[in-house]
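Section 5.1 Outputs to date
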Amino acid sequence: MSRILCAWSPSWAIANWRRRYPSDSPAEPFALLETVRAVRRLSAVSWEAASLGLHPGQKATDAMALVPELVTAEAEPEADAAALTALADWCVRFSPAVAADGADGLFLDVTGVDHLWDGEDRMLDDFRGRLAANGLPFRCAIADTPGAAWALAHFGEDGAIASAGGQAALLAPLPPAAMRLSTETWAQIERLGLRQVGQLLSIPRAPFARRFGRAALARLDQALGREKEALTFRRPPNPWFARLAFAEPISVPEDMARVTFDVAAKLCARLETEGRGARRFEIAFHRVDGRALPLAIGLSLPGRDAKRIAKLFAPKLETVDPGFGIEVVTLVAHDVEPISGRQARLDSGREATVEEGLAPLVDRLINRLGEERVWRAVPVESHVPELAVGRARPLAAPPQARAWDRETPRPTRLFRRPEPVEAVLALTPDDPPTQFRWRGQLHRVRRAEGPERIGEEWWKGAIEDVRIGHIRDYYRVEDEAGARFWLFRAGLYGDPAIPPKWWMHGLFG
């Protein structure tokens, strides 16, 4: 059974504005303004302003009439959204799966991680305390479902923790609005005199759905766990996650290198137990000021060698600024797949040779130069020259595509873009050229083969109107000096609509 932590800040915009402008933060009633359909309205209000009867959505003129001493500033929704994203990244120290809840809340999937704090209550106290220390007041709750956690955080007791399968008893005394119902449904329920969720739960399902709609029934089912609710996590949930927390913050490079190996050994032990390896690892150093500093490495083959992983991270540790200290380190494995045990000896065949010699070299090159700069060419089943070769991982398994037919050889050097050829002499309509000028030099042809007609892949939908301009006639020619070229003619002689043009596309070795 899953466990979800919901964190909601009723004054998220106000708290973030005060963090961004600490010197300008007023202690008196304060509100943020926005323009809605040419009308100035309150976007968010402080606790002092709310206690005087002000609320979001109220007209600014009405608010100033009620509270003349109200201090206002312009709302910054983009900055608030960026701050919520940064907070979601910070929450990785508590859970690898974090999802935004509107513009002022978060969902954390804390299933199976509470033992790191000796229980959910201590974990929740640590979470709330860290947020409050940074000037971010949050209401939090933990339950089996996102709907129940949301209801308890918004309408229940702050810090409520529902026992496994016991959220119904805590939801019963809450108002119907806790079920995230639409405004119309909520108003209809209020008119009927239903004031508690427990009263809704006592209504038979069929009459409830007929009166209030299937959407309202789905909300009840989601809160009670009868129906699943999908959350959009900032990062996909990943079970391959390891975490180390320190009693005292660390900042010395030697200590950071040591904990990198320690957290890698912890995660690799799990991978080895399950007979799996990963191609990519992402480590994050969480500073005491709440900032997370991520680093990532990739492997050419799935692996789980902690020493090798730590060695690849070592050159990148120089870029990490520990600030006032690192208090938590997390490591996540991506692209996890099953691998078999390999013998670590040279006499175990080619696989061991690749594992011990070539793979570490490729890994170092990839992590220094970038994954997009280390690759190998593989054949692709396409008759179009530009599409007949693709890129693959350096040590990936050979593709199933057939190599090009030897009867129609291709040049060893294919130009990225064909280059124009001038002063071409050729008998019409389909004879090869007898001479041509390329890059300012005249070439007289001694031998030639062709034409080989190649058309574009119109059946893949890339071409809307199939016409003769999409066809090329290729020739393999050799000049008097022995140099061999690959030319093609686009267009036909005698066709004024598409006059023929000659192009150089490659060179034979």
